[in-house]
Amino acid sequence: MKPFAHENPHYQCIKAYYAGKIAARSQRPYIQHIDEGLEIMMRRGACVVAMEAFCLHPMVQGDEDLRQSFGSEDLFGADSRWDWEPRALILAMEYRRVANAYLSGRCIDSISEIQLSVLPEVQEMLVADKVQNRKDFERYHQDHPRHKELTEYFQNWLRRLEISESDYLMLIDGL
User: Fold this and answer.
1) Which distant-in-sequence residues (6+ apart) come within 8 Å of 79 by Cβ?
2) pLDDT tens digits, residue range 63-95?
3) What domains are defined for the chain?
């Protein structure tokens, strides 16, 4: 991982936020999602502010995450120790809007129904998130009760983001 991941305050914040948390099925640390997503973004040449926003996105993605993060004095209070890039917060919130508009339970007739952002930085975040999530899904969730629907969901996102199967395989190589 390049120095960004170790030194950047956005990464340090998500590292502290995820400290000791592991995924139930895979038993992998949650921070692995961020580390691998950042690696995907670096491979694609994403800008630093998009990577900073990717670090923040788990703290605002779900409604309860947003509620808890917003109320946290440590994260957003006057005495917060985090030196935020304001554009990263905006990108994280735009990511939340776009990603939550198409979740796995929503049926669509066409991938054109998946709305993308007007901001290319958010598309880079979506690529990192969906590629990394699909990789984990394929490795750790073969027995998932909604396997068919989730496979279609990831295929839809990657087609909408114009990530071919060969692009996907290249992006997950070594992760």
Assistant:
1) 73
2) 998 988 888 877 776 667 777 889 999 999 999
3) 3-172 (1.10.3210)
